Amino acid sequence: KMSVIIGDILDPTIFDKTNLAEARHLVAFTGEDGVNVELAIKARTYMREHGAEQLLVHMHVDNTHIAERLENYPKFYADSAAAQVDFFSVYDLNARILFRDYPPESFAHYFGQVQVHLALYNFGPQAEHILLEAVRICHFANESQVKFSVFDTNATENGEIFMSTYPHLNSLCEVDFIEMPVMESKALESVYTELLQSVTEHVICLEDDGDSLDLALLLRTTLLNRIGCNAPIIVHMAKSSGLAQLLESNFGGPEIPDGLYPFGML
Question: Which runs of E-coded beta strand occur in 180-263?
Fold first, then answer.
């Protein structure tokens, strides 16, 4: 049984309506890190004032740097007897599931490549987590580093910010930021065939499902028109219904050369 209560989640009266004092877990998943933090603090205060048992707050963060800083901020963890907070990120979970379901070394082996080469399209939070997760887990017997080609409309600026945050990343992998309007077919057609031939996995991380599917189909056409460029295309989809159904396998297994696969559906 599930109840839906409509109201301001930061209003303490909502805590009364939800009977928070009897709850053991609270999941803060509002879509805004600031609101999640405020909700966690107010819930902790409420639990203390009502003499309730410890509440476990599971707080989603888009920006994992905030989580890292809060973990070292004593005020945020004060009064842990009332509430204990831990963090999770859908972007991080998606990245882990992506590599579990589509192991990058398997595609590299399938195409006879000695180096895993991931092409990322749109360098937002999801693509960042995928890059970092790949660097963390992709250590191979031939000692080759993972290579990334990042295609983004603001690749230069986003790349500089990212590399300044992780200054030692160049020693762990190869990263090229390529400034390009990814939604334009002419821009995709301008990418060198040699580069596309070396890619073992394309990962599309646009924020809108419709745009993601549109780019996937544009990219698929581009790859099929090039010799030796038929790497699979992994497409981020926020919803499991609707457009994501078009990317599900009809046969329960890989469909290369069709090779369009969804990931990230909540």
Answer: 201-204, 233-236, 260-263
